[in-house]
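User: quick one
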Amino acid sequence: MSEADLLRKQQSQPDPGGHPAGAHLSPAERDKARAWTAEGLMTSPAVTARPQWSVVEAARTMARHHVKRLPVVDGADRLVGIISRADLLHVFLRRDVTIREEITVDVLTRTLGLDPASVTVHVEDGRVTPTGTVPHSSLVPLAVRLCESVDGVVDVTNRLGSRVDDAGGVPRR
Amino acid sequence: MTRHSTVGEVMTRDVVTVRPDTPFKEITSVLSARGISAVPVADARGAPMGLVSEADLLRRQTEQPDEYGGQPAPPGWPHERSKARAENAAGLMTTPVVTARPDWPVTQAARTMDHHRVRRLLVVDETDRIVGIVSRSDLLRVFLRPDEEIREEIRDDVLKGMLRLGGMEVQVQVHDGVVTLRGEVERHSTARIAERLAKGVDGVVTVRPMIDYAVDDVAAQDVRPGSPR
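Assistant: Done. Structure below.
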């Protein structure tokens, strides 16, 4: 049941000038416009999501079915929640401390094999500033690009330097 | 510098606007005919003045007597009541309007929407003229990029541009946002960086890494107690 379902109802009321209303609606929409109960107005069947789905998967499903929200059901088809587009957008609104943790642990340590003590990561309102020294200059653009691609990052101000200039060579660590 | 898609890439450019004196009925027709849920109100030179949404119109509708002649209870806020009585865009619109710029990353637009508790932003150029409108669903479009676009960015921008790896070394397949990287590189660390860079590309659901390597230069790091994953 959505605002659009209600508006369809609204548009089908005759206007004060006595013009016929609802002429632009499809037959299915006209049925909805005539309905006065939730059962008549609702959109069915409901497309559902599963709790373990990724944000991207939920977004793709909403787009495919042209819906703004999905009921989330468990394995027994029981309703466990509702996910809306606003919820999906939370991936862009990650807290600074969460972004910082992903950059420090996942990007710098695990992916680039850097000593976490050698780079300080400052995050404020999604704006990231990595400061420190990495072994090779070829690692700097990789580190910047990896930081930029982390969910929720608005931009990256690079303050990284390197001990050895290997620019033009193959990235190494 | 930004990596994520920009507002200009996902916004709706073909924006219909109404004038402050556009009447209620004409606004509902515009929303219905265009299949949109809100319309900007612009002044004579195209600068934004406000936004009229379905919610603004519904508020007006709930003020109407129902078909049995019953009078609905007026909403609590005087401001809401005056909106409910308004007959044109100037009286119905929500102000002030929250704006964005085309070069903003989508992350910044999402944060601005959240901060101001709005569902859409008007996109304006340097002269404050409306050049687009960006809604939540537009922002979600970054998750819906076509497979070929994702594949090109990974192949050209990530593998070739960042890692200098050509198609002989690593091949990229993308199906419904699922990326498969296949091939062989010299070092394990390079394979790992390639995987992580691909994962960070907008629209990627997941990455299936199938890259072989000759030298394992990260094994020591993985057995370290407490290291992630």
